[in-house]
Amino acid sequence: MKKGIFLWIVAILVGCGSDDNAPPPIPEGAILVFPLENSECTTGQPVNETLSRVTFEWQPSANTDLYTLSVVNLNTNTPQTLTTVATSASLSIEKGAPFSWSVTSTNTDSDLTASSESWLFYNAGSQTTYAPFPAQIIAPKSGQTIIADALSQVTLEWSGADVENDIDVFEVYFSEQNPPLTLLGTLNNDESTMDVGVVSGTTYYWKVITKDAEGNTSDSGVYDFKVL
After folding, report:
1. Known PROSITE patterns for this protein (predicted)?
2. What beta strand segments (E) does the chain contain?
């Protein structure tokens, strides 16, 4: 009888101790709430002639102790970051400029993090019409080394968005020089891929100019990749 009680106690102790060896909980990505995706944000509080203070909001994510808000001015590629335990934070950002924003979730007991989606928006300014958001390059990633297909081609891929939903065309520039000055083609607003011929061992540079129906334009910036 005593032996049975002893084994029962050992089993309990072992079972309790097993939790100590469990891996730390992995945080989940936050769900963004505001500013809305591909929208014009008109709620910013004026700071001065060029800046307004915008409050960003997101839903709480599981297993998260800290949130890091990242806001990038797409005209200048200048990031601003802020870390908080709350599910909202305010930053002073440029009026009339396009931005992307995202949230990184962190658990202090884990080395792993989780990222939210990245949303685009315009911070309201004095203008009554807005240029399209700069095209977001999907593939190839900048600096990537890739293998061409059997036809010695690589597929360029991007995405476009516009507050007024009036994108007209995408102009794709592609060459071995930086910046690329050769207009490879002009595509309709419902097209966002293009196959290009490439040569092994060569580095290529490319960018996408987005034009809307009112003649406004935006520049994706130059991206590069090397072909094996």
Report:
1. PROKAR_LIPOPROTEIN
2. 32-34, 39-41, 45-46, 51-58, 66-73, 78-84, 88-94, 98-106, 113-115, 119-123, 136-139, 144-146, 153-159, 167-175, 183-188, 193-197, 203-212, 217-219, 223-227
CA distances from 213 to 164, 185, 217 (A): 10, 18, 10
User: Which residue in the block uniquely carries the two structure tokens 């335990």?
Assistant: 85
103 and 30 Cβ atoms separated by less than 8 Å: yes
Digit-coded pLDDT (tens) for 24-80: 889 999 999 999 999 999 999 999 999 999 999 999 999 999 999 999 999 999 999
Amino acid at 74: L
Block residue for tokens 């490439």: 198
Q: Is there a common fold for 32-123 and 136-227?
A: yes
154 within 8 A of 126, measured Cβ to Cβ: no
Q: What CATH number labels 136-227?
A: 2.60.40.10
Which tokens sit at 228? 């094996």
DSSP of 17-46, one letter per residue?
HHGGGSPPPPPPPPPEEESPTTEEE--PEE
Q: What residues does each domain of the chain span?
A: 32-123, 136-227
Token readout for 69 is 């808000």
